[in-house]
Amino acid sequence: MNRYPLWKYALIVITVIFGALYALPNIYAPDPAIQISGSSASTEIDAGTMQRVESALKAKSIEFFGVEFTEANGLVRLYKQEDQLRAQRAVQQELGEREYVVAVSLAPTTPEWLTNLGAEPMKLGLDLAGGVHFLLEVDTKKVITEDFESIETQIKRFLREERLRGVKIRLDDETLVIASEDEDARNKITAFLRTDVPALQYDRLESNGEYLVHARMSDAYIREKETLAVQQNLTALRKRVNELGVSEPLVQRQGRNRIVVQLPGIQDTARAKAIIGKTANLEFRLESRPSTLASQKEEFDWREAGKQQIYGPASLEKRAFVKGEHVTNASASIDPETNLPQINISLNSDGGSLIFQNTKNNVGRRMGVLFIEYHTRTNIEHDEDGKEIKTFTQIPEKKIISLATIQSPLNMNFRITGIDSMKEASEVSLLLRAGALAAPMGFVEERTIGPSLGKQNVDSGIKSVQFGLAMVLIFMLVYYRVFGLAANIALAVNLTLLVAIMSIFGATLTLPGIAGIVLTVGMAVDANVLIFSRIREELAAGLSPQSAISTGFDRAFVTILDANITTFIVAIILYAIGSGPIKGFAVTLAIGIITSMFTAIMCSRAIVNIIYGNRTVKKLWI
User: Fold this and answer.
1) 576 within 8 A of 462, measured Cβ to Cβ
2) Beta strand residue intervals within 221-321, DSSP E
3) Which of 83, 98, 498, 613 would you label with 58, given CA atoms 20 to 30 Å apart?
4) What are residue 34's phi and psi, to 5 degrees?
5) Where is the domain boundary, 447, 476, 503?
6) CA dihedral 79, 85, 88, 90 (to 10 degrees)
7) What letter would DSSP give residue 287?
8) Are 41 and 426 in contact (CB under 8 A)?
């Protein structure tokens, strides 16, 4: 009686070894570090770059170790977490912001033999000690300025159609000033504004013999445009975060023109910063004719992909007939004929109609594909009190990635060539798939760790968990003696398996998740308490010790199963309707229920069987 077959013992041992192996990476704390990557896919990290990084750190007396790099990324480990921001600033100043991205990071220390087995540490949420936090500011002024420019173009077209001459237009501090020498011309202009440009509010004035119209946007319209710009950036950022493969990300609006991005558990923070902060777009423009006015065209140098020879300058019209917002899908591939990278583009119906009309009427002319990328330059100043003030300047970088003769009208699906490398083609495709940002953004704040309750509260919470666990272990050992020892061993196995499963599935542990672990500990102990109480009842009813053990485990099983099934259903409901922290709690609770069922019933009974099984027992220490 009370003996398991050999296969059950083997199953328990294998499960415990498996759990211990995949929970082991969690004891290796990551090192604070800075990560360096190119701001564009064509920028490589080499030994010379890392030597400059080391020199910059030594000049600031920042201690470091473990310098490593590949073509895409460089990593420098630091001894102190407090040195991360200083190191980031020193290296960024040395390398420059246009070519390189420097981000704070946490470098894993998991041994290689564990990594080769696929064992990775459990991801921690931002409220504990992991991930990255960005606060970005959207340049909504640029949106308003572009809207004014569009309205100005609309008014100029009206003036040409109505043949109204001698009318001057200028933009003066978010006010459009229209001056004419004829009152009838002003009347026609105001009538046009009233019917065709309702976004503008205007006043009629007279000065120095001129008839003036001062037009400006209403506050409600400006707020609406700002909201739309921030909302479009939010949508694009969420798509970009999904491309990064981050679990449980947070992307939400803060205030009038700021966006918070929290990426828990991410390691490649340099790439995250480059993808999130990059404002990139495509514009399709026609090559300008010789007769085109200088104010209506732009000149660029351009080169053929894979070659150093510069072809140019090439002159393109300022007007873009199709932009990145018309793109519905983009993918990188290799052109089978030339064996060079290319991007396959799909447009929406409006974009398809626009490109068809413009290419149909311009067969034989050359069309340029202009790639526009904004780099954010951070300007650091200090006020009278010595407080640091950050301002941001958006620096556009434009380059022609394709300039080809239009052979026939294009439709919604086509391809563009002229990309430097497959990596750059993939990066451009990602940005186009995610959608163009409505306005450039700058990083106002960046943190690797963003505790929602503060580090002191987090430490206090962990200590309280440890204290509570210790009290439970002592109580079980004192109150149930030998059986309490079996329950404590099973409880340790339960926690090990719980951590291992969460690590394998890449679940993110947050403070609510810790609450789920505490509840799991209580449930696991509760199951053992039910079993041991039933054994005591059977002993009091006169059963022999061996029979009491067998009956106690068998009859308590049904009660334990019912209780855990109902709790498991609650966990599923919480995961289905909850979000963020609630889901974290539900995942931990659901996994804990499964592991506690295994350890409280199988493991604890196996330990009791080893101690008392197949022996003559006169008295149980329970």
Assistant:
1) no
2) 250-254, 258-263, 279-286, 297-303, 310-317
3) 98
4) -120, 145
5) 447
6) -100
7) B
8) yes
DSSP 3-state of 49: helix
Per the structure, the count of domains in the chain is 4
Tell me, yes or no, whether 244 lies in a domain: no
- My answer on whether 360 and 411 are in the same domain is yes
Q: In what order do the strands lie in the sheet with 31-38?
A: 64-69, 73-78, 31-38, 100-107
Domain containing 530 equals 6-24+453-612
Q: Do 547 and 553 touch, CB atoms closer than 8 A? A: no
The CATH number covering residue 147 comes to: 3.30.70.990
Q: Structure tokens of 349?
A: 């119906």
Is residue 41 located within the same domain as residue 155? Answer: no
Tracing tokens 């199951």 back to the chain, one arrives at 527
Q: Say which amino acid occupies 284.
A: F
Cα 592-597-602 angle, rounded to 5 deg: 135
CA distance 479 to 616: 24
Query: What is the spatial distance between Cα 219 and Cα 533, in angstroms, rounded to a whole number?
Result: 72
Q: What share of the chain is helix, strand, coil (3-state, %, to 5)?
A: 50, 25, 25
Distances (CA, A) of 335 to 134, 307, 319, 332, 573: 38, 17, 29, 10, 49
Structure tokens at 473: 């272990």
DSSP-assigned beta bridge partners for residue 344: 331, 415
Structure tokens at 292: 């085109």
CATH number at residue 566: 1.20.1640.10
**What is the strand order of the sheet 327-334 is part of?**
327-334, 341-347, 413-417
d(CA 513, CA 508): 8
The sheet carrying 258-263 orders its strands as 250-254, 258-263, 132-138, 441-447
C-alpha 549, offset from chain centre: 53
- Identify the segments of the chain with pLDDT beneath 70: 1, 39-42, 97-98, 128-131, 242-248, 265-271, 274-275, 277-280, 302-312, 374-379, 388-394, 418, 420, 430-431, 433-436, 448-458, 461, 579-580
What pTM was computed for the model? 0.58
Strand-pairing partners, residue 74, are: 36, 69
Residue 53 lies in a domain: yes
Rounded to whole angstroms, the Cα distance separating 429 from 341 reads 12
Which tokens belong to 336? 């089978």
